[in-house]
User: Fold these one by one.
Assistant:
Number 1:
Amino acid sequence: MATASLTSYLPTYAEIPAERAAAVRARLETIVRAGWPDLDPTPNTPFGDLHLTPLAYQIAALEIAGERMFSDLDLANVAAGVVNNCDFAKAYLQNFAPTPRESSQASGVIRLAFSNDVGRVIDRRALFAFGAGNIFGLRLSGPDALLILPVGSPKTNLNHYVLTQFDRNSFIVDVPVAGIMGTPVTAGSEGTTDVLVTGLVGITAIADFLSGTREDTVSALAQKTRSTFYAASLTSRGGAVAFISKEFLQITAASAVVSGDHEMLRDSENPLGVTNGSLDVCVRSSQAFLTDTQLVKLSYNAELDKFIGRLDLAEIPVKIDGVVCDTAPTVGLEYTIYSASRNPVRAPLGTAAYSELEQLYIEIPMPRANDNTRLIVTENGDTVAYFLVTYRYDPATKHVVTTLNSPEVKPVGVDVLAKSFTPIIVDSLTVEYVKKPGVQVNIDQARQEILSYFLKLGYPDIYFDSAIGDSMLYAGASGVKRITVSAHVQWSAATKALVTEDPLEDWASATAVARPFPTLTISSPGDLTPAYVDAALGTGSETLVACGKRNIGYILDSANLNFSEFKT
Amino acid sequence: MQTTVVDFTGDRPRLDLNKRISGFKSSAQRCLVNLGTRKGTDPLYEDRGTNLLRDAVSGRMINANAAQHSANFAAADTYFFERAFDAPGDIDALASVALTTVNYDGQQVNFQVVFVSASGEQIGVTPTL
């Protein structure tokens, strides 16, 4: 309840401006003259000097106290950092629920590791502890227990989490949690649980836990309230972004693509010609991107001389960094990753990319030496081999997916799909700068700022050359002569789209008709915010990819960022 | 308008809560208070008060002429300050303030103060510094 005493807002005598007191005294004098015409209220009289003037100061103080309290009710002032009573302002903001109660809890994602690939049921009331004072509960979309299913099982319930093989001896599942965090829980922290789960061999935090609402964010909270107050629901562009911002404190960029945007290719018309509402929510968190390496078992197809299989990763991958054989990591592999939609009706072809609806497959030709001998040893009677897949992911994406699938928030009539931003992979960015003689340019500082800038970019923040210029100026350069860039749009973590249902039944036929994603390269900084729609749209080779300012993000690695001094 | 009497006859001014004055007498009392108030001590009214007391204690009244100059300025300051509070057409409004040096011996100075109202009523006292 937001209550406050006016006395907490009263100014001291020194804080009362003389002009304010004089104005109040003049008003009081008018009242006295009107009500008590015989009483002399002017200065130099006992009544005027000994009563009216002190009274004017007191009334001025009350007026200032009132104004301060009204100021705390005006969220524009609070958002600008003008807060007179933080406790009252915070309590008042709770009336607008800028962050739901459970979101103000600390949150994170834990990885449960099991020694075998069997289904399990974990009571939703299970608690997970990460040191003293850090207690977390499961954050599930559905009302039932947490159901962990064996590898490859279909999900038919909101609380179904399917195991993925992590290495030869363990199977993992990542689950969101929320709770109380007394001390920071960092990535890699080992936890314990109060429930007995057979085969559970590890509980690990995959990323730093977030502490929820910070104490020093009254003005930030007010800003969020003003921007989210109008409609934090998933039925409109602004409402979806507002909902995500409210629900997930770790999201640094959120953008909604709706029916009618050129980036939206999921919407369709029903037989009556009415467009079915679709909404894609692209998100990126402050923890993007984490890197993980996971063991994947692939079947060896002797006829095709290839290793083939589903690429079931624990998280939704944004970029596959590399694949090596577990038993022969030094052998170079040529691999092809294919994308298929788990639900072609909701998200056909490329529209499923970077979402939970995308199913990846991988094909690796058997590497052979010049004399045609195999460079990889198969196992299990020449049927399988294990490969280590290194990939990048944003831990928040799956968390958002879980929440958006909850029946409590799922909007009626709008198909909402959460995904990561479509990344533009910057292969090379060179900044040619100019500096004055004798001046040191702090390249490391500029590098960190530019990398951070690209990482945080997301609509409505779009790329500007001036941001790089600013970073160079702050680093000591006197100017930027030229920025050269080489980049390409990565439509999916895969390079081709499969159109066949159950491609593993006849892999050769399925891949024969697979459609390569189009190539869109960028060679000028001005093109770093491309607007593109699949050129083959409507033809037999369409892949339904599209990009624009609303759904693109960037991946720029430090090794691809170069600096060069331009000698004048 | 009525006001409580300020008794200046003792060693320091006192309020006489049993007595009231009104009309031009209250105006004259206000003027006396203003004459003795140091200018700048009232944060609400910058023009209130005079520099008469400051000039006296700071050694600026080096002779009778200088004392008279201070007195003249004090009278003018008081006149203009008080006139701002008089209603137009008020017969008890202040018409003039005259402060005259009547005795100066280097250690003490006496002034004769005469207040004249718009109706011609005259009130005069002799303060001592």
Number 2:
Amino acid sequence: MTVLVIALYFALPDGDSSGPLSKLQPDQEVQAESRKLDVVDVSPADANPGSAITVTYVGAEEVGAEEAQQVLVFVGKEELSVLARRKGSLVARLPSDLSEGRVKIRVSSGDDRSKPYDIRIEQTNWRRPFRSLLGGLALLLFGIGVFARAAPEAAGRQSAHGLARLAGRGPTALVLGAAIGALAQSTTAAAGLLAGLVSSSLLAIGPAASAFLGAQLGAATAPLVTGLIDPREGLLIIAVGVLWLAFAYDRRARALARLVLGAGLIAFGLQTLRPGFEPFVQHPTLLSLVAGLGGGGPGDVALCALLGVVLVALLQGPAPVVVLVLMLAQTTAQWELRTALGVLAGAGLGSAVGALLTTPVVRRGRRLAQLYLVLGVFGTLFAAITVEVWASVADRIVPGIPHGSRWGHQTLLPNLGLHLGVAFALSQLASALLLLPFVSSIQRALERIFPDPVRPELTTIGDALGVLRAGLAQVFSTEREGLRRLSELALDGSRDAGRFTEHRLVDAHTRLEELLSGPVLWLPETPEGRALSRVAFSSLGMLRSLEALERQAERLTDSRLALAGGEGEIAPLPAEDSQVISEMHELIESGLTDVSVSLESRALVDREAALSREIRLNGLEARIRSALQSGPRNSVAVQRRLRVLELVDAYEASGNQLYRLTEALAEWCEPASFTRSAASMA
Amino acid sequence: MSAPAPADFKVFDPTSASADERMTRERSETKYLIAPEDTAALIRQLALHLPAHRFNGDGANRLPDPLHFVTTVYFDTDSRAHYRAAANDLQHNVKLRAKEYYDLHPSLAEVATDPRQIARIQPWVWFELKRREGSRTRKRRFRVPKQRLPEIFVAGQLVPEALAQPGEGLEADSNELREIVRYCESLGETLSVSCIVNYRRLSFQDHACGLRITVDQGLSFFAPPPNPWSFEHPLVRSSLGVPSGALREAVLEVKRRAASPAWLAQVLARAGAPLPFSKFVAGSRAVHGESSER
């Protein structure tokens, strides 16, 4: 089915034909027939106040070059500021105070004045770029999360070992990264995929950085060589991922499906993100800046590289910048290969900056981001210094260009395109090969300069036992608060109660994690310390069982709503089921209360009561199980009973954990055991 | 060998006995053998008329839903005098035995880290001298802490002298204890473990303690181990080894100190006629066969 979907998609015409540029080429017949000054096209036809428009005109070609400089452009009666001009077209900035509506654009040369050309002025829609930025970023981060979680599930021991071996050698890591970059066609997407692999511990940081060097190369050159997966195909990849997920029959299949889905979300996220940057990239200020570049000196190269850093970071990779550079070169007619290559020299650092969107959000991402940035700085420096070298090499080896890039909606300057592509590819390859041997050294240097933060020692507090005990009391108290309302969720399907319980359990979990990674590590090596440590770890088991209990209660509510069939009111549980759930809930609550009291007051634990409670819980669970076998035999009743049984099993499991916690607490509460142990240690 | 301290022995004092203890001490007994396929229905019927009974005295297990088990250690002489007497006349005989009561809680298996944690073992055994005269039985018994057993049970043999001088401070009426000792001494032979019987017991008793009905299931008979009271392992079934024999049927015993209620006859109609049955005879036969020698 996947093959069918993909084949059908690519069989459909995509409608990508050369569009506006055809309008740029003046009609030859018109030229031959008329020498009158006339505007043939204004792009965009719907412009914003303050934005730049490209005016294409005819009738001034036979005028000399100097007179071409005298072509002026007007909106109404107001002369526009010309930003750039070439033969037959110019770029002008519209006034910022233009009101919405139709306006007339005219050009004039001397006494010659063209007929008006209507365009529409629209106020800048900032909502679209805003939602593109936010939505695209959200999809991107979500996709990375989905990918990172799926990767370890999809990879078995052999795959993980294979990936580690593959990426462990520098050149193969480079090739792997180039493949990822070529497929993703975006260094940010590649960084996201690599971050996901690092986060899931399938790839180490060093090999990931090496792969990222290759990703820049792949992302930059793939669109110039062949039309591989277009990021517009992100939706198609998502569709394939969802299709696989629907038909996945086991854990690994579901993981693979989520892997594909994650990759699709990353691609689609980037595709959504890019339009968010358009207003900034297309701002007339940029055009003004661009027009001033291109002198060739070190200062100019540095400025070009800096511009390139910003553009690559904003546009998530070098490939769109290649397109933009070619567009700008065409528009301004002032750029040549070396200027364009100077801008693209910023690709290394720009990619690293763009990767900051994805790397810091994952585990060990901070270190990865640092490594990317350092490699990016060196890569950009190398590329900027060697602009002349690669431009010369490209000039020598590239006689002409057979085709241009597929990016954008315009056919770009064919001669410049291939030269730039070859020069850039060689520059990136050389940079990657040069930096590859130093990746490990740079990583080690970063670890020395920016070591991982170390937790402050608790010995300064002085009483790890007391701190832990107070902390555990807090944890139990929070759990009890949450548990108090859990029965409302279980019996009445109250989602508010479920949310309340969930929040309390999250709070308890956070606090317990702090205790386990803090005071527990500093407990004294005494019988009491060891006993309290066991209490702490038993508490974790208890908490996890309560979390599972809450989830099971939510699922019971889900199924009751589903079985309600849209009637709005969910049917109450059968009386026996309600009674059993209530009894089990009371038993767990009372047990947790006993545990809390014992911890706080150090009163001896009533083991008999704990055993009795455990037996009663097991008996209640057995009661529901036998009721399942003897109850009504229709599918709805059986479904309902099964969900109840799942909840009851979760209560019973909590009871087991509660018993173990009680046992651990009993060991801690009974001082006689410490006395004997202390004596034996004396 | 020093005599056990007097406080270790608890002897039944008939003048202050509760009704429950009186029922234990003296009653009429009638036995029925119940087919396995009829046992569950019979138990349900009994449960409708009588509440479940469990020991609530000193050291009782208070946990809910226990499975009660009994291990009875029967003593006999080298010439199997007790067996021969009982085999010849099931209605008139004497048995000397020690009983270990324990409860199992299988549902605790989930939280147990040691098999012993699902068993509730009492820290003592009950020594009993039981006389049967027709349908009436009389028991004399005393309780001994397990840790004192090596003193009265040496090299696999009962040492009555160790019981002879319990010391001062004994509860009133040490006649029962002396009766047991005298009986043991009168045999003229050494007493040792003849066989062991293990079963699960369900017990029902009315509130007046005039009627007690027990249903013993899963009777199994075991040869005596070298040292039956090793304190590392209580006398639970799993520690007794491979059984020498077993009884398919359940043994239902009606123990009365009062008149039998009318409903009981209806319930027992399916049980058939009462049968003379002795766990000791069945056990001894399973372990030693019909021979009078061991």
